[in-house]
Every structure is written in C-alpha cells, then in structure tokens.
Specification:
The protein is an alpha+beta fold and 83 residues long. The protein is built from 2 helices and 3 strands; from the N terminus they run αββαβ.
Amino acid sequence: MTENTPGKPTLWDRVSDALEAIRPHLQNDGGDVELVNVDDNGVVQVRFQGACRVCPAASITLSQGVQRSIQERVPEVTEVVLV
C-alpha cells in the first residue's frame, strides 16, 4: 500500500470513498462490494457479496459500475479485479 502523508488521504482511503458512491446501487439489488487490497501499482482487488456474488451480470457490474466509478474518482487506479 502507498505511504501515508499526514493530512493527505491514502490511495486506500480514496478508493474506499469511491466505493461508497456505488455501494447504495449494489445494496438496492441485494449485493455489496468489499475492498480487499490496493497495491502500489494502482491495482484494486474487490470481492462481491450477497446477490452480486452469483449475479450473471457481475462482470458488467465490475467493469461498467465499480471500475468506472473508482477510476473517475481515483485516476491512479489502473485496474480493478474481482477476487
């Protein structure tokens, strides 16, 4: 994970905040997303929970929802992967 500078949110914090923006949409459909890891190369690992784990559209939700939402708010993110 990236180094924490006093007064400046970490990359983890910024990604977590970005996930909070999309979380209500997932929860409305009985699902959720958990932030697992953010590495120094900007790769974010997430885990779907609830209905999202078994949803046939999970890959679309990941790329068009979760990844897009994160990258709009945190441009340093290079990839979002499901674990």
